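thread: overnight batch results

M.L. [08:02]
morning all. the overnight job finished for the chain we discussed friday. pasting input first so we're all looking at the same thing
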Amino acid sequence: MTTASPQSKKELSEAEAWEILKPVCRELFELVNEKMLGFVSASEEGNGSFTIRLKSSRLHFASRGFKDSIGDVEYGEGMLRVGLRANGRPGNVFVELAA
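M.L. [08:03]
and the structure it wrote out:
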């Protein structure tokens, strides 16, 4: 088995991104099905942290379990960044806000 170096980055699929977000994004699949939330890109760092980029007109994040937490939220120039831990995995979700 080959292990990734700490500097390597792995692209994640849309399905993998939804699995990561499922514990902290209420109504995830409803928002996707109603075209209110769209996948742009996602990646995983060699240390297990993730970055997910979305486009959305509506979000609902909530910490629901012991392994989930919303750390910080930052907004600037039409982009929202949510630092969180989903199912024990740290990461950032960047959301381009749409009308």
